[in-house]
Amino acid sequence: MTMNVYFGASIRGGRDHVSVYTSIQKLLACYRHVLTEHIGDSSLTSYGECDKSDIAIFKRDVAWIDMSDIVVLEVTNPSLGVGWEAAYAQLQGKKIVCLFNQHLAKGKLSAMIAGNEGVNLLRYQDIQEVAAFFNLSFR
Ligand code: 6IA
Asked: What is the pTM of this model?
């Protein structure tokens, strides 16, 4: 059976790290079906995907989290939506991986992620570390 991954990262919180999201999404696709292909799409700006209402986006994303076997969140750029997704996924009992890039971060990671024992947190310096982590976790 195909295993689904929900990959979340900042959208309205800012798209500065979109190239990192694209790389992570490509890595994830080697192991799982990625439900959220728009996250690494460099053409999606913080105004993007205007053809869908916020209500439609919310309902679709909640349904995708419900369908996922694992939720992977890139949390370097603070995002209200990603924080909400982490809390929802945790309450649903999903396995959660959070990725925090120590080079790109402008501040400290929220204690609600950093201090959360229900989250598998990888503090990484470069994409090779993420690749090695996925290789170990998803094989
Ligand atoms: O608060 P943020 O926008 O940074 O929240 C980002 C998170 O919420 C991502 O992990 C997404 O899964 C979800 N999300 C937020 N906006 C969207 C969206 N279109 N499409 C899909 N997922 C979304 C937003 C378009 C909008 C900028 C007009």
From this structure: 0.94
